[in-house]
Amino acid sequence: MKVNKILIILSTLLVFILSTGIASAAKPVITADHTYFDIKSGQYILNGNVYIKVRNRIITASHARVNPATLEVWGTGGITVQQRDIHFTGDSVYVYGSRSQAKIDGGVNLSRSGLIISADKADFNWRSKVAVFDGNVRVTQGNRKWTADSVSYNVDTDSFL
């Protein structure tokens, strides 16, 4: 029993050292109703009112797994991904934190002032600031409405590519 406790403490310390060493500028804030750290996978298992903040990005979900060393997030159940005035919703999300990319699936919506884009799925890159929407894309921009199979949108320039 004593060996198990020591192993747990050492594993937790190792994950802490790795997560602060690799991503010291991007230490995540993670909260949920139920939180469990799986030592074998090095991931937090989160259930209920999940809130994850990395830098100025906020992800909420019903359920999620988070790898603090790689800043990867797998979330399901009414997810939201926010940064500044950009607000994505969908059924699931996979965030590649170190590459600043997110894949959102299942009834994706992007909303910001004067614009709503909905689609089956979306890929967003925080570095390029481009969101690519695929499948049943519907765009409402002011009074103008249109549909497409795929749409690329730059959130910085507020323009379609």
UniProtKB/TrEMBL annotation:
Chain ranges of the Organic solvent tolerance-like N-terminal domain: 117-152
GO annotations of cellular component type: cell outer membrane; transporter complex
InterPro entries in the record: LptD (IPR050218), OstA-like_N (IPR005653)
Keyword tags: Cell outer membrane, Membrane, Signal
Signal sequence region: 1-25
Superkingdom per UniProt: Bacteria
Record keyword Glycoprotein present: no
Protein name: LPS-assembly protein LptD
Organism: Sporomusa termitida
Gene designation: lptD_1
